[in-house]
Amino acid sequence: MTVSWLFVVFCVATATAATALYDRNLAYWSPYADHPQLAVNTKALEAHHLKEFQRRQTTENKFDDNHYPTFYGAHFGTSPTVWSGGINFTHSVASGDPFDTSVLIWTRAFPLGAGPDQSVPVCVSYDVFSSPGMQGKPVQSDQAFTSWDVDFTVKFEVKGLKPDTQYSYVFSDCTNPATTSPVGKTRTLPSPNTPANTVNGGKPLTLAVFSCSQFQTGWFNAYGVAAHNTSADIFVHLGDYIYESVGNGAAIGRAVLGRELATIHDYRQRYAQYRTDSSLLAAHLNAPWINVWVYYYQSNQVLKLKIASNSRMITSLQVADNTWKAGSTNSNDSSAGCAFSASGACFTDRKLAAVRAYHEWIPVRQVETTDLLRIWRNFQIGKLLDLTMLDTRQYDRDVTDVDYNHVIASLADIPDRSLMGAAQEKWFSDTLIESQNRGAIWRIVGQQIVFTQILLNGVFADLDDWDGYRMNRQRILDHLHANKIRNTIILSGDSHANWVSDLAHPNDTTTYDPVTGKGSIAVEFAGTAVTSPSPFGAGMFTNTTSHTTYPKSPRRHASPDQPDLCADRRPEPRHSFRGFFTLTIDTKQANATYYAMSNVGTPNLGSFVSATFTVNAGEDRLARPVAGGVVAAGVLKNGS
Ligand SMILES: *[C@@H]1O[C@H](CO)[C@@H](O)[C@H](O)[C@H]1NC(C)=O
Ligand SMILES: *[C@@H]1O[C@H](CO)[C@@H](O)[C@H](O)[C@H]1NC(C)=O
Ligand SMILES: *[C@@H]1O[C@H](CO)[C@@H](O)[C@H](O)[C@H]1NC(C)=O
Ligand SMILES: *[C@@H]1O[C@H](CO)[C@@H](O)[C@H](O)[C@H]1NC(C)=O
Ligand SMILES: *[C@@H]1O[C@H](CO)[C@@H](O)[C@H](O)[C@H]1NC(C)=O
Ligand SMILES: *[C@@H]1O[C@H](CO)[C@@H](O)[C@H](O)[C@H]1NC(C)=O
């Protein structure tokens, strides 16, 4: 009786422990646990590994298991064997998406020696310490498997941590604890109810904000400057972390491996190469990141596959009658995508590969595994702020300007047209209200594309931005205005240029005063690229020494929400003034500091501050004079 009872307990415990070792590695869930093409079935994987091991046990040439000890305490036949031939932590470590008591940590544990064995998992341990020097006992430790199936990536959620606390962490080889990874630094957020003036131990909180990091067009010095020369607490990336294209980077020592991305192998190889840049590695090692998607850019530079609805595309795989392919411009890509891709891959397959590799390589949380491809999510950072990350690129987005479909200008004002998709738009409105109701001082919104209206010579500069979805933008401005939601700051990427703006209703000259900023509803800080060259400039920046050409245009005067600063581009050298900005926040002010890189043609940490801006709490506008009236690069609208 007792014996069989024990036996039952033993079996149950074993079964639980077994897949748990796989399941604790979130890379296997990448990104959607219930979708066969978008996650690894860990039960099946374990069964496969066991079967392979048993086969080796029973072959006539008896398998030599020196390198494959059984792992946990089950009896031999049901115990996975693990690799013990040594591990190389090839891509250092990273962390991301901190909450108040948990954070994600990441590494890659590549088996040493000849080609990796596809039938044996690798076992990785981690230890988290509350001291930077890893003195004393670890506050959290665990183990998990990784394998060939997820490119040997390892992604743990470390739970049970203290809020608003700095941690160090290290990974090691379970079978040889002397083999360790570099030591990473990370932190948790203050819990939602922490009083605003005690957040971050009472010091201002600094976000470093990046977008558009293209390997072949420059060295990622911006990450290095932020990691080494600012006190950034959290790194926020607003998209285009990798590029699909290959380009020609050889001249600056940045030749890209592989081809234009199509398969899972291609994507993994690209992430692996990007993560050799020492500045990027330093930035991941130093602080947690909060990312939103890359998008997809064809190397022919013509077809921007910023396609309307990623989620609908994926959904379309699950329904028999694929309406997505039937009638819209987007169907061009799903029905005939094979024909358009330089690599010959169908667009849909490519998208699946991209999403899977993203979740393997980036320490990003799956907010809701039942919502296909949702990455929009919110971080409550004490009562100081909410950091609300949107997906304005992929999630249920109506058709965008794909360069050959010249209909967008005529669609941009259609009321039903949505950039965010109904679910995300409602969630965003509710999140803003909830943030205000819970008494958070600031609402910082991270998203991919430029929000403000930008007219170049009377024409919208980029209908792929919010200018192509004007009613969606209007609904957000109306929502902020009607509900008296204060202290909202929108952060944007994508455009490869800096644009700093008061946000008012476009062309509103009655309630908004562009000189004082009175009547402004919110503020936008849009940041330039880490390396990607600026497509803007012709007509607006041909003469950056002249601060008069820009405000002289009467049309632009007629558009009060035109940016107040168009900073940072100098015609030559081409790679000058790529960069990033920081946002430093306390209860009274949010200060944006724009950093310009001296030269991204070589790895270096040369940079200067091109402009600084202040937003005073309660004012919803840029403090005047904007940027103190002086910028070191760029053009101020009403500036000196
Ligand atoms: C470990 O990986 C790094 C980065 O890919 C590589 O430079 C190094 O040669 C590898 N070490 C061994 C022993 O394979
Ligand atoms: C930036 O950090 C690097 C590395 O710590 C250091 O060598 C350099 O002097 C710093 N630059 C500035 C301007 O502080
Ligand atoms: C589909 O895309 C191709 C370019 O790749 C373009 O020539 C064609 O007009 C597009 N068709 C539609 C219906 O938009
Ligand atoms: C603002 O005015 C410009 C120039 O007259 C016009 O092109 C644009 O459509 C207007 N914007 C909105 C949102 O109405
Ligand atoms: C640039 O602007 C400055 C100041 O207005 C002017 O003196 C100069 O001639 C301009 N240069 C060009 C190339 O237009
Ligand atoms: C913002 O900048 C102002 C002006 O330089 C400074 O007085 C204030 O302390 C700064 N606040 C923060 C949070 O950095």
From TrEMBL:
Residues 1-20 form the signal peptide. SUPFAM superfamilies: Metallo-dependent phosphatases. Pfam families: PhoD, PhoD_N. Gene3D superfamilies: PhoD-like phosphatase (3.60.21.70), Purple acid phosphatase-like, N-terminal (2.60.40.380). The keyword Signal applies. InterPro entries: Metallo-depent_PP-like (IPR029052), PhoD-like_MPP (IPR018946), PhoD-like_sf (IPR038607), PhoD_N (IPR032093), Phospholipid_Metab_Enz (IPR052900). Residues 541-551 have a biased composition (Polar residues). Residues 91-188 form the Phospholipase D N-terminal domain. Residues 536-572 are annotated as: Disordered. The keyword Repressor does not apply. Residues 207-293, 319-592 form the PhoD-like phosphatase metallophosphatase domain. Transmembrane segments: none annotated. Keywords: Signal. This is Alkaline phosphatase D.
